[in-house]
Amino acid sequence: xxxxxxxxxxxxxxxxxxxxxxxxxxxxxxxxxxxxxxxxxxxxxxxxxxxxxxxxxxxxxxxxxxxxxxxxxxxxxxxxxxxxxxxxxxxxxxxxxxxxxxxxxxxxxxxxxxxxxxxxxxxxxxxxxxxxxxxxxxxxxxxxxxxxxxxxxxxxxxxxxxxxxxxxxxxxxxxxxxxxxxxxxxxxxxxxxxxxxxx
Length: 199
Prior knowledge:
The protein has 199 residues and is α/β, with parallel strands linked by helices. The chain has helices spanning 3-15, 20-27, 31-38, 46-56, 60-70, 83-96, 108-117, 134-144, 160-163, 178-185, and strands at residues 75-79, 101-105, 120-126, 128-129, 132-133, 149-154, 170-173.
């Protein structure tokens, strides 16, 4: 199943005011093929992706990226230089996002290395990470993958104004709670499937 690609395709087709039948005709496939793409049971191959991109007026690379992203278990990271915050926060994230791969880091450099090797869907970052700024870490993560959602965590609400200039999705005052995480998931710049009841 690939719900992200299916939802994106349905949205793009609707924006172009095309029915499944009309898109199928342009693609030289059957309507049931388009329906399978849109219910997530099948993915188009590379040739079909190229045709789809042309029919929908979008970049084929972006379409392939969405297909690859939607097929993965989402990677969620939490970066805080205090181990006690990670110990308390990681189980909360796992409870809210049961099908995500949730990993914690106390050192920003480790989080950056992880992000280079794994597509990070969502990052919860402390703003003050010792001598490193969480704002700078946010910018680095977005350079690695512009579709990473970043939510800042801090004990100080006055930091929120600085946080908005970084391209972050949200801001939470500690301690992290299930309700707070769910609220942030509703506001993500780049939504993804979290699985479970809320997925």
